[in-house]
Amino acid sequence: MTTEPSRGTPPATPAGVLVLAGTPIGDTSDAPPRLAAELAGADVVAAEDTRRLRRLTQALGVTTTGRVVSYFEGNESARTPELVEALAGGARVLLVTDAGMPSVSDPGYRLVAAAVERGIKVTAVPGPSAVLTALALSGLPVDRFCFEGFPPRKAGERLAKLREVADERRTLVYFEAPHRLDDTLAAMAEVFGADRRAAVCRELTKTYEEVKRGGLADLAVWAADGVRGEITVVVEGAPERAPVTDPVELVRMVRVREEAGERRKEAIAAVALEAGLPKRVVFDAVVAAKNSAGSSPRDSKGLS
Description:
With 304 residues, the protein is an alpha/beta fold. It is 39% helix and 17% strand. The chain is built from eleven helices and ten strands. It has helices at residues 33-41, 50-60, 76-88, 109-117, 130-138, 155-164, 181-192, 216-223, 247-259, 264-275, 279-292, and strands at residues 17-21, 44-47, 67-70, 92-96, 121-125, 145-149, 171-176, 197-202, 210-215, 231-235. Strands 3-2-4-1-5 form a five-stranded parallel sheet, with helices on both faces. Strands 6-7-10-8-9 form a five-stranded mixed sheet, sandwiched between helices. Helix 3 runs parallel beside helix 4, helix 6 crosses helix 7 and helix 9 (247-259) packs across helix 11 (279-292). The chain is elongated, with a radius of gyration of 27 Å.
């Protein structure tokens, strides 16, 4: 016996697909071959800047047949539900940003997260990347790296953020606005060290492409004259530190932390972790220093 589907229940509409498309970071001839086909065939094209999208399609000789909407930082939260509903209704939605890959310091993360939550397929058209291009051109180690995006604009917040990665061994990659570059390089020189190697990559793949390499302090002086264009900064990772075993240095490190407000027990534990030593070794160095200074043995109670 064959069971016929209920005539009153329409078949479910298959969900659409969200396509993240990488766009050229400079030279439009670097556009991936699939980009033109996706631009022509998408039901909806969400663009960070519709004017730049228009210039790109003209350069590629493509006519978009789908609906074009803006999708940028200012309307990302409000427009995401609308795009998700289009996807749920079966639309093929193409997301493009001004240059490079959506979601990488560009709009896109909210839409991807919302689509994934609804069980909608997300795929990508790989394309040029300022991060990887700058890494390759920097001349610095590229086997391990981390991308830190844009540093904070305010000086105090920027210094605090840089201090968080001062001991990071991997190569660091940043984006920066040209008018803040000199201040950021100066802050990096202060936190990472004046001679820490770095590369400032400017206008990658464009007519006036430039890669300036050197120590952070020298690069800050160079940037003080003014730099234009899209900027990617690549900074060498922190050098490996020799293990600290000198008791005098261990005591000094504990005192620095105590003066910064840490309790002695926590300071000893932190120094032991930093030096790669058992806590007892650091504890004994502190007790020995107190005893040699004529302190009462009672002072050492509660430090273990």
